[in-house]
Design goal:
five-stranded antiparallel beta sheet, mainly beta
């Protein structure tokens, strides 16, 4: 799922130390308060129904662009997190919180900015695990997919990822040990090869990849080499260069993910049934093991098949390739992982393979490969504990694999390998998925693997 391009905007709010908004009279210089409300500036809002949430509890409905503030007062120096609980409709937009988490500041310049953009262009890219194709689809407001075209990727691939600005797409090619790179025409969705691609990978069998939120670094896990290979991304051309040496993981790493703040990278080591954690040097991209790494998933009966990151970077979810999904909390200060109480949580299906959170972080979805189903959970915003949604698990097509949340927050996409189709499911306010009209959509001769969704 991609992150929209950041844009700076000034935050405007009313000080607790002076007259209320809209009041008159003289004001004194700003005095640092002990408690304050969190001010919010919203820009670009055209749709209706935008709802923000503070710390997983208090909500704030936003009707128009402008300046607002949450009602509750919070202590200066305490941590906070503001997220989008509901995206606007008519027109459909994606609203992104800029610097939405951190420490409450007593300074007059403190505030949160929310930027909203229309979803006028949306595309889905699917890798081919059974051939050499890479397919591009348009994605309309009803959730329907239409094939734009394919390119010859030169190899079968599973992992794929877009840079945060949506300008470049990369795939991990397991057999020839390479990374393919494409520039993306964000108006048409058409792909063009980046000069110098494909790029050689030092380790054996690169399977997946993750791109830092800064867009500066790309990391791929090598399944047979037991390493994480890091690359610097040229901001102009999309070309890849090595920033440093390989980082050993062990245990057959099958997935990698990065926290939204770019501080930590985690790798799922299948055979060692554990998750390796690393801090990321923001300047060089080099990796350093976090204290306590690697972290056991549960016991010898479970595996670390893949990873899904909570959108706020609080929780890490690990499908175990059995009948459960593990949940871990992330210590933002150290990167250390701690198992959530009650973990792992049963899926009600067999061979839990891949997971994805919705854009609000309130719901988690897990594909069950052998039982052809999708498990759905509500996520406790404080503890990270999972509660199955009514009706879960939900029946899907044959051999569900990758699952991806669409940035607008309304749809979930699942690659259905055996039937060579992509399922698209509308999500209601309670997180329950329902297949859209025409779903699942044919991928032709392509056997869909990873899914990358671009919305602008």
């Amino acid at each position: 799922m991609m992150t929209m391009r950041k844009a700076a905007a000034a935050a405007v709010f009313c000080s607790l130390a002076v007259a209320a908004c809209g009041g008159s009279g003289s004001t004194s210089s700003f005095e640092t308060p002990e408690y304050r409300t969190i001010p919010v500036t919203v820009v670009g809002l055209a749709g209706t129904g935008l709802v923000l949430q503070r710390d997983g509890s208090e909500t704030l409905s936003i009707p128009l662009s402008g300046s607002y503030q949450f009602t509750a007062q919070v202590a200066v120096g305490s941590t906070f997190a503001v997220t989008v609980a509901k995206q606007p409709l008519a027109p459909r937009q994606t609203c992104t919180v800029i610097q939405g988490s951190g420490t409450v500041d007593g300074d007059a310049s403190f505030g949160v900015t929310v930027k909203c953009i229309n979803l006028t262009t949306r595309f889905v890219y699917a890798t081919d695990t059974g051939g050499n194709e890479l397919a591009a689809f348009s994605f309309d407001n009803a959730g329907a997919l239409s094939l734009i075209g394919t390119v010859n990727n030169g190899a079968s691939s599973y992992g794929a990822g877009l840079t945060p600005d949506g300008l470049f797409l990369y795939t991990a090619n397991r057999t020839p040990n390479t990374l393919s790179a494409y520039s993306v025409d964000t108006g048409t969705g058409v792909l063009s090869g980046v000069a110098g691609a494909p790029f050689a990978v030092a380790g054996l069998a690169p399977r997946v990849l993750a791109i830092a939120p800064s867009g500066k670094f790309l990391y791929t896990a090598t399944q047979s080499g037991n390493t994480i290979e890091g690359y610097a991304i040229s901001q102009g051309s999309g070309a890849l260069t090595l920033p440093g040496s390989s980082t050993a993981t062990g245990g057959q790493p099958l997935d990698v993910t990065i926290t939204p703040n770019g501080k930590y990278l985690y790798a799922a080591a299948f055979n060692s049934r554990s998750v390796y954690g690393y801090s990321i040097d923001a300047s060089t991209g080099s990796l350093t093991p976090v204290p306590g790494s690697p972290f056991p998933v549960y016991d010898l009966s479970t595996y670390a098949r893949s990873l899904s990151m909570d959108p706020r970077g609080r929780f890490l979810f690990v499908p175990t390739y059995t009948t459960s999904v593990a949940a871990m909390t992330i210590d933002d200060a150290t990167g250390t992982l701690t198992m959530v109480a009650g973990s792992p949580f049963g899926t009600g299906g067999a061979q839990a393979s891949f997971a994805a959170s919705d854009v609000s972080g309130k719901f988690l979805y897990v594909t069950n490969e052998n039982s052809n189903s999708l498990s759905a959970y509500s996520v406790d915003q404080t503890s990270g504990q999972l509660t199955p949604l009514p009706g879960s698990p939900f029946a899907l097509g044959f051999s569900p694999q990758a699952v991806a949340a669409e940035p607008g927050g309304q749809y979930l996409l699942v690659s259905l390998q055996s039937s060579k189709r992509i399922g698209v499911y509308a999500l209601d306010a309670d997180g329950v998925p329902t297949a859209v009209s025409g779903s699942p959509f044919s991928t032709g001769s392509l056997t869909p693997g990873a899914l990358a969704v671009l919305a602008r």
